[in-house]
Design goal:
With 190 residues, this protein is mostly helical. The chain folds into two domains: 1-66; 70-190. The protein is 78% helix and 0% strand. The protein has helices at 3-33, 43-66, 70-92, 106-121, 125-146, 153-185. Helix 2 (43-66) runs antiparallel to helix 3, helix 3 (70-92) packs antiparallel against helix 4 and helix 3 (70-92) packs antiparallel against helix 6 (153-185). The longest helix is centred in the C-terminal third of the chain and has 33 residues, at 153-185. The radius of gyration is 19 Å and the shape is flat. The two termini are 24 Å apart.
Length: 190
């Protein structure tokens, strides 16, 4: 077996694992529904989760197909993971209060900044770095809006902690994309 064939088999195994984990995430609430009354998903929830997982896994598959650069793939993985977690968490329980709090709708704007930025950058590393930086700034803006006057200190700490985690993830993706751009600019190998 030559090196190319070996890499293809390894990539295929990772792809199967990635999609299997995604499918497990969609089916996990079904198991939870049989164990507790705290989880109550309807068919539309499973469809939404399935579409979300398919979009994330499919987007990562495109990145794997498009480049062998591990830093670029890592940056895409961090960005897609942050987007997935943001949407999943917000849809499931809400980041600000319950999922019914209208402020939670603003997080859709954060994801829109990431997607629009990636499209405008045409997925080139330098543009992606700027897009992820803009997404981190959008996350910070939503955090400032979510911190309403008179909020309980515990609620403020929760909002700051969750949003801070996402800001760090967006900045990590921006840093990785920037690193890819700098390495390519200098003509260094992946």
């Amino acid at each position: 077996m030559n090196g190319i064939e070996s890499r293809r088999r390894t990539a295929s195994r990772w792809r199967i694992l990635r999609w299997s984990i995604g499918a497990s995430l969609v089916l996990l609430p079904l198991l939870a529904m049989n164990m507790t009354d705290q989880v109550n998903w309807g068919p539309e929830d499973f469809v939404f989760a399935g579409i979300l997982v398919a979009v994330i896994c499919g987007a990562y598959d495109v990145a794997v197909w498009a480049t062998e650069d591990p830093a670029y793939r890592g940056a895409v993985g961090v960005a897609l993971g942050a987007g997935f977690l943001l949407v999943w968490l917000n849809a499931a329980v809400g980041i600000v209060g319950s999922e019914d709090n209208p402020v939670n709708l603003l997080y859709g704007g954060v994801v829109a900044v990431a997607v629009l930025g990636a499209l405008l950058a045409r997925c080139r590393a330098g543009g992606m770095a700027r897009a992820m930086l803009a997404t981190a700034l959008a996350q910070m803006l939503v955090t400032l809006i979510a911190l309403r006057p008179g909020a309980a200190p515990a609620e403020a700490v929760e909002i700051l902690s969750l949003n801070g985690m996402f800001v760090i993830l967006w900045l990590a993706a921006a840093w990785l994309f920037r690193r890819v751009r700098e390495r390519r600019r200098r003509g260094l190998p992946s």
